[in-house]
Amino acid sequence: MKTFNVGLIGMGTVGTGVASILLEKNSPLVEKLNCVPVLKGIADSNPEVRKKLKLPSDVLFVNNAKELIGNPDIHVIVELVGGIHPAKEIIMDALENGKDVVTANKMLLALHGSEIFSKAQKHGKSISFEASVGGGIPIIAAVRDGFIANRIESIFGIVNGTTNYILTKMTRENVKYSDALSEAQKMGYAEKDPTMDVEGIDSSHKLAILARLGFGVDFDYKQIYCEGINNVDLSDIWYAHELGYTLKLLAIAKRTANNNIELRVNPTLLTQEHPLSSVNGVFNAICVNGSAVGETMLYGRGAGQMPTASAVVADLVDVALGRAGITFAAMKTFSRHCERVQIADILQVKTRYYLRFSVVDKPGVLAKISGSLGDNEISIASVIQHKVKGDGNVPLVIMTHVAEEGKLRKALSEITKLDVVKDQTRLLRVEE
Ligand code: HSE
């Protein structure tokens, strides 16, 4: 049995899961392979971690990552520290020291991917990152290898379990956003500071990684349009349902007609028949549409200790078998030949829209709003206005046909000035 030595940096939840798979006595890896990754060393700044782990005596435990990076017996470094610093320095050091790298760090790859990939190319080493998107779902391998014969037309899906849990709870149990968030925090899905998840930032990091791999291009991460679920109102979920739609936070990457790319994260109305509408709770699912394969969907647990550890260990096996190095060196997307493109401005996006106005209930209001939409070439598909008790403002919901967002926003800026329109208008994009 050949072995390949692993140095694990960062022993949080996922690191502990990776260690438990690598240390398992009757491991499926040993059953299936004649070359296996072996845990050689662990680095973590917290000495308490060592006591909890009950490590065998031949596994080193150090508190400084440099001791593993400089160890000539270690062939691959797993970075599970997260965040930008010191994770970036750890990866750069590991590459300079001739180690391949496995990471789950989506933020680092989204923001500094080009720099890290070039460094790896320069040193003839590889970066593997299956665990950065979709937890245990092998979406990176699918897009990189399985769909290599395809021109990818679109990749879109639910890539954040926390927000999907919150939206599912709001939809099924009719609870408002803040209560669903508190429940997600109680269950341990949402962090105490939930910003990264609820504002869509985590999804945009994952989208950047998928788009780079799928379209084979580089771009400025900051150009990705990102809108989270923190302003979703329960009433929008009811109206969406009445119109035959489900509300989901989607990460969307599309090639557009003029060969531009559209990258955005936003709460989206999906028809109830769409398979993503049935993806509930903390589950993730990603649809990939390729020129040869057509429509596909991958589904599974997008986070959690063992699903994410499963993805990290799959990468380790790729490195141990030599596949990671061959693939990484061969793919233009990881090289300096990767084309840098502009992401389409959100104002150029063409889709259908859901609009919820708060209006005074009197004759002529609908005519004024529809007049303004019509003047800006926006065609109405349907309208809902329910009676409310009392003389207060009433919600007016309009679904449009496909329109360019720039034109829609122009119409909305005119409509907002009407004295019959109160409060802020809610705009949600639709995917058919
Ligand atoms: N916070 C993420 C989620 C998991 O809720 O899906 C890590 O990417």
Task: Please explain how this structure is put together.
The protein is an alpha/beta fold. It folds into three domains: 2-135 and 307-337, Rossmann fold (3-Layer(aba) Sandwich), CATH 3.40.50; 139-292, 2-Layer Sandwich (Dihydrodipicolinate Reductase, domain 2); 349-431, ACT domain (Alpha-Beta Plaits). It is built from 16 helices and 19 strands. It has helices at 13-23, 28-32, 48-53, 65-69, 87-96, 106-122, 139-146, 161-173, 177-186, 195-198, 201-215, 234-242, 305-321, 323-330, 365-375, 405-416, and strands at 2-9, 35-43, 60-62, 76-79, 100-103, 127-128, 152-158, 217-218, 225-226, 245-255, 261-271, 283-290, 294-301, 339-340, 350-359, 380-384, 394-400, 403-404, 421-431. The strands form three sheets. Strands 7, 9, 10, 11, 12, 13, 15, 16, 17, 18 and 19 form an eleven-stranded mixed sheet that branches. 45% of the residues are buried. The model has no long low-confidence stretch (mean pLDDT 96). Bound molecules: L-homoserine (HSE). L-homoserine (HSE) binds next to α8.
